[in-house]
Structure formats: structure tokens, C-alpha cells
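FORM 12-B: Structure-to-Sequence Request
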């Protein structure tokens, strides 16, 4: 789950029972087996998760040899700025290279202003595939 800069595709269920897929940047904490996503407090995925904490996720490389991980779990929404800023900084470094990048600053400011939250995914099941080993 750590390799490269692939997006996670997060599946949630909306108020009508329809599936919604949300690509997002993520940080995987291997020590605690948690996936973290920074997103707007007003995002559809956040709204859906307030109603139903169940998620499905997929992180896959679209280039041969194909490999990835998919699974399901539950999500918790963190609104505590002191918890969220260090997580968001890890995400920004992963995708943008540093926290000084203008986009990183904008996203971290959104957390500090209470406009963004961090989603914590606790995987309950997952499976992997790697066709490079065939």
C-alpha cells in the first residue's frame, strides 16, 4: 500500500443506497494498519460516512504488470486539528514532496481552519494481487 503515488479509490454509499467512488490521496500507517485521507468537511464522501461508516477501497497500478490491494473496512471522521495536521503533512509530503508546496499549504490551512477533516480507514478485510510474480 506504500509504493508510488497511486490514489486510493474509496467506495461509500449515499443516502439513496447508491455506490459512490472517490479517488483520493492517502497515507498508510503500517504500524497501526490504518489508511488516512484528508478531505473537505463538506465532501460527498464525508457526508456519506457520517451516515454509514462502511467503506470499500482499492489501490491499484493501472500499468502492467498489474498489482494492487482492495478491501473493506470502517471509517472514522477526525475533526481534531491537532490530530489532523500531522497526518495531512504526511500526505502532502508523499504526493507533493514537501509541506512548503503552495497546494500543501492551502490544504493544511483548510485543516487548521476547520474546513477539512481526516478520514481514518480501519481495514477489516483486504486482498492483494501482483501479476509481476507470474
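FORM 12-B RESPONSE
SEQUENCE OUT:
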Amino acid at each position: 500500500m506504500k509504493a508510488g503515488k497511486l490514489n486510493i479509490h474509496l467506495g461509500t454509499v449515499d443516502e439513496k443506497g447508491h455506490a459512490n467512488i472517490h479517488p483520493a490521496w492517502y497515507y498508510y500507517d503500517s504500524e497501526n494498519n490504518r489508511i488516512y485521507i484528508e478531505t473537505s468537511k463538506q465532501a460527498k464522501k464525508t457526508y456519506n460516512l457520517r451516515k454509514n461508516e462502511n467503506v470499500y477501497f482499492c489501490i491499484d497500478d493501472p500499468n502492467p504488470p498489474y498489482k494492487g490491494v482492495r478491501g473493506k473496512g470502517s471509517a472514522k471522521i477526525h475533526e481534531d486539528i491537532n490530530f489532523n495536521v500531522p497526518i495531512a503533512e504526511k500526505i502532502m509530503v508523499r504526493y507533493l514532496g514537501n509541506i512548503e508546496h503552495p497546494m500543501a499549504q492551502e490544504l493544511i490551512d483548510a485543516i487548521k481552519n476547520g474546513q477539512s477533516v481526516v478520514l481514518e480507514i480501519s481495514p477489516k478485510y483486504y486482498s492483494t494481487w501482483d501479476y509481476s510474480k507470474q
